[in-house]
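Exam revision sheet. Question 4 asks you to relate a sequence to its structure. Input first:
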Amino acid sequence: MGKLLDRYIHRKVAERWRKATQGAAALPAPKLRQMRDEARKLRGQLNNLIHKAESRLARPGVGSTQFPKPLGTDWCCRPDLWRGPLPRPGIASASRRASLDHQVTLFHDCALAEIGMRQTRNTRDKDLAPFGLTVEVFGFSGSFLSLSVELPPEAAQGLTKQHLMRMDVLIEAERPLGVVARLNIQHGPNTDQVPRALDLSSPTNSIDFDLANLPLNERRIEKIWLDLIFERPEMNRITLRDLTVCRHHRADL
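Answer key, structure tokens:
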């Protein structure tokens, strides 16, 4: 009965507002003002409901971890920024070290902080990540601009020189620019790095970081993070639609 009553009340309310709309031209000013104020309050609640519904019902679904993985993958992740909404979705004027969450940090040395970054919602059919990250750069007189993504502790557990670390990233830019991806592994007092250049002419970038030639102390690995270094970023909008990392074993010969 509750559902039937709810539907009945909804029909009566909708009919009331339909009649009010039709008769608004003939209403006296005090009554019209009262109806306007009631309509504004109702519109605010409806807009909030529509916004929350569209956020939840949009695809891809929030929290999605679906993405292609190489054969033999024993660990993989999509960082939180690309999976779910952040409490603070953006920064208008990024400082020299600006963090959106506990994993993603933007670094630069530009005196004028004409740099903004914000989380955006992916809604295209080909998108696998629910969210993306957009970095907007206006005037830039610094020497570097980089985005650091810290990997969870599980990435270091059981890591050996026989592993390959694969990063898949989907980057869009308004103007051509150079991007270098660098894997950083801290083990004890040392930090080893593996840089790789990205080719933005390709719709997707998939690169493997080979650990075989690193002087890596496998027992003392403490921290792993990725750096995306942008070259000539001025007057550009850079969108990272997706970023995923996998760890898989090198094929036996």
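Marking note for examiners. The longest strand covers residues 236-249.
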